[in-house]
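To whoever is on call:

I kicked off a structure prediction for a single chain this morning and the downstream step that reads the tokens threw a length-mismatch warning. I double-checked the sequence; it's 226 residues and nothing unusual in it as far as I can see. Pasting both halves so you can look.
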Amino acid sequence: MLKPQELRIAGEILPFLNDPTTPIGRDFATQATLLHLPAGTTIFSEGDECSVFAVLSSGTVRVFKIGETGREITLYRFGRGESCILTTSCVLSARQFPAIAVVEKDTTAFVIDQFTFRDWINRYGEWRDYVFKLLSQRLATVMAIVDEIAFRRVDVRLAEFLLQHAAGEPPVLYATHQHIAAELGTSREVVSRILADFSDDGLIRSGRGQIVIRDRERLQQRAQAQ
């Protein structure tokens, strides 16, 4: 059974749990558990059975695919108050997990078993609304990623990625070429080639594990190119 402090946290991320005397509030208090997962923990590997459903109260989980060539693509991340739509789909359909889910930042999560999850979908409208809203939002995110990969040039997406994630003055991004490739759904070789072009044009300065933006205005022009 969850402790009062844990129930308070649950109410903060899922407002319909604020009243512990409601049927869903009582069931959540007695049937959910709070787990702590350190960074680097693999929650699911491709082909695993989805036996639990988790709602994060802190931290970040990255969900990604690895192709036959070893190339990675990040599908999405989820954090506080969110869950994994692939897990949701697998629990509802009794299918195996089709990707890999790894803890990116130390995470705590409220976990319920698959049978309880299905039971709550049938019994509690507020729980059902939460799950369907989650599915809708995350599906939109995945569709945006598909659109990016299929229809936007990699150099444009890479310029935009650098501008979004570099920080400081001058702006610096600490990341490997492999990490950037996984985020953009392309190969490390392609990322390295484009970064070399950016460097030759004076837009960036690239070193081991870091990229410094030298000309933000011209890099923004590259990010807006058609």
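Update from on-call: the warning came from a stale cache, not from the record. Cleared it. Sanity check on the structure: The longest strand covers residues 52-66.
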